[in-house]
Design goal:
heterodimer; A: 174 residues; mainly alpha; Rna Polymerase Sigma Factor, Chain: A; Arc Repressor Mutant, subunit A; B: 261 residues; seven-stranded antiparallel β-sheet; 7 helices; rod-shaped
Chain lengths: 174, 261
Amino acid sequence: MGALNLAMEPAMTTVRRGLEPLIPALRRFARALARDGETADDLVQDTLVRALRAEHLFHGGDLRTWLFTILLNLDRNRRRGLSRRPMLAVIEEVDPAGAPSSDGSGRDIERGLALLPAEQREVLLLVTLEGLSYREAAEVQAVPIGTVMSRLSRARAALRAHLDGELPQLRRVQ
Amino acid sequence: MTDNAPITEDELHAYVDGALPADRMAAVESYLARNPEAAARVAAWRVQAAQIRERWGMVADEPIPERLRIESIAVRASGIRRKVAIAATIAFLVGAGAGWLGRDLSGFGADAQLARVLADAAIEAHRLYINEVRHPIEVRADEAHLLPWLSRRVGSPVRAPNLAPEGLKLLGGRLLPGSRGPTALIMYEGKGGERVTITCTRAGREGESGFRWREAGDIGAVAWVESGLAFVVAGPAERQRLDRVARQVHAAYEEISTDRR
């Protein structure tokens, strides 16, 4: 029995061992991405299952980047699914005066992020929350590094406008 | 790059994200000192980043829920992998071809070994008992204690799926000694008097495998491991029929393990 287990193990443990310490970061990232805790953990669960299932496809490289890639792809599929099921998604309250905020600006960071296009939100979270390098973020999103930079730039500009109380139009700064 | 190169927007981001090369630090800082608008932008970006970390940073410190523990994940992953392996095996079967079914498909060398050993034992038992006209079995199908008894001795629920669609009628079962403990043998009989047996014993481990084909003379066997049990379906060497039987058996046990989840 021991021998049988051992024979199956080697590939499993390499990825598994590397996976375990990354779970907290994956949860953090997924929570910020999906907002809802259950949905976020579903994403993490599917990501981990997929990673273990495809471990033979992982030949070295950065495990964390690979996991974020899987997670983002799953999240994109999820959102595509939601858009095909219009009534199942909770409609977000669009209440500018509502929601108490921590910084007194009347809108908090959470809502600001939710208003960004997905790919901009992804980049901003990968870089600021998860501390990925621009190169790693580019790898995760499968785009050139220049695209990462322009997404980051647009995300920050839009978020700033939002947090500053939606100034009429963001001045185009050159 | 030199200290005198113009400052780009990318460099301002890199400055905020701690990705700016050291030799550009002084240039960027002096630029910001001279450009209040740029300095305000950079300050706002820093605040955003701090708010993002403040809002979600602590998620990483929360205890990890049971379903996200690596052990639970591994179980799920192997479950899915088993389905993939079986699907691959079945696809392979449909495409036909001789030789060892699925031997190289799932890559579980240990399972192949286990399947071979158990299949040989099952074929042996099959040969021994199918020719037994008067006492092929110990307990007849119509005796209610057949399955409870075998389940108790094997140490795991034993099923006798309905194989009528394959023209097979349940005769009954018997208990056999096995290298891995008591083994249940369930016997069916077809219209032509041919017999098909299912043996089921504890595999001694978790893990799953695809179906594996073994042939010895006129007897063929399909072996696989799932849910901690090792199964062998043995009968006249008609691979397609035995494979259909194996799938019926697999489906019957799949129901049990799904119910348990």
